[in-house]
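User: Structure tokens for both sequences below?

Assistant:
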Amino acid sequence: MSDPVSAADRTLLVRLNRRSRAGIEELCDDLGVTATAVRQRLARLTDAGLIDRRPVSVGRGRPRHLYGLTPDGRRALGSNYQELADAMWSALSEVEDEKVRAFLFGRLQDTLVSRYGGDSAGEGELLQRLAGLRDALEVHGFTVEIDDSGPLPILREHHCPYLDISEDDPQICELEQRVFERVLGTGVSLTRCCRDGDSCCEFTPEGPALTHLSPANAGVTP
């Protein structure tokens, strides 16, 4: 499965998505390249429909332009997974037998919990578990960070590999939320979501570790 976005352009998209919107100066600092190089990448990505440009008034003189990702740009960040995820979800959703479908969704959830949490799912301090989940997601190509500046830490996911699916079926968001709850061993709120037009998805644990959530009480209703 080929990636339509080059490594250099993907790096710019990731940096831009983290900032939500940014000017050429900020991108030069982030990427460590010249303004000419940044402008060339921005022009290429704008022509491809992956970013847009908005003027911002800064007093007298010419307005400053800030760049941000378009919906297609956010999809491009998840393009490594999109076709596989679409096909998998479509196949599961088309299973007519409700019991079989529920069983398959449960096994999918178990597989993701094992992938992102391993044998230590639900163990350790909350920040340790969050860091472990972040590291596991990054190994599988996600761009995530932990924001611990507030009363409760936030796991921020900077692109959604399931964006197309979620626009038709928000159950995929619920599945990811339940997986994170089981990995972290506590309830998790989805406080921001790319499906709603946000530049990222944010998952906020509801507090210290609760009783470990089992598949029976953490399942997605198909």
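Moving on to the next sequence.
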Amino acid sequence: QLDYERSEGFLVLLRAPQDLALAQPGLTLLAELGVKHSVLDARDCRAAEPGLNPDMALHAGIYLPDDEVGNCRQFAHLLRSEAQALGVRFCFHTEVQRLVPGARPQLMLQPTAQGDSDLSTTGVEASRTGFAPTAPLPLGPSTESADAVVVCAALGSGALLAPHGLRLPLAPVFGYSVTAPMRLDEHHPDRGPRSAVMDERYKVAISRLGSRVRAAGCAELGGTPTAYNEAAVATLYKVLDDWYPGVARLTQAQRWKGARPMLPDGPPVLGASGVAGVWLNLGHGSSGWALACGSARVLADLLAQRAPAVDTRGLGIERLRH
């Protein structure tokens, strides 16, 4: 089991009675799916999360004990190290320029300019973990062949697939986050969230990552990664201040904006592409990390011609063909 910053439990905060009324269809669905949950009154919400602002209006909450919040970046780095220990080779600072389908599909690769911001691509990590460092690549263009290729290149997937008649309606839905160190006080250890809470009205989640606190939310269609919607960022700060006033050192806050590619009907596309040797793992949207390991297992089973443990009907590319 990977050892990364994580905590269990997720509390959805409902500010007023109408918020609870609007949540009823979701509660019905949770019950039908057998997802463990409970509806808490305001007092029980504050018992579960003692750091909540006592002056903030709170009607009720929905508690999901089996949900988890964690450090996704840390998880990914640890997963990479475990994969390297098993012999997986990673090629960073490399662009896949073209995909050639076939019984032995090929990738046309081109190295890109290497920055110095990612120390994990050097021997620094190798000396710390005992795993092999990332293997150097040829300085010029190169070709890699494989038994199969899984395309999971987010918004870059379109350019790889379009020449082969695959045009997926992927759209970027941008999300925002603000992360800052917490003001830790041994006399008031519960100033911040114990795990994670979400303000249902504003759709903003507040989570604890070790000694930091993060507010995240928003679903912005279109735009670019570098153009920030200041109103969206202001909403994150507002909700954080509503529920945990003064908990964060905002002068040291880091803000982030990133695209989460989604498909119009919601679910990802997973499985064979219909093009020889090419498989798809795309369009998970804001559920990317939650679905990542399960999606990888399904693909591994399909590639090995084993029956997946879950029903994959409705996840194939055929649903997107017109």
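User: Anything stand out in the second?

Assistant: The chain is about 25% helix and 30% strand.
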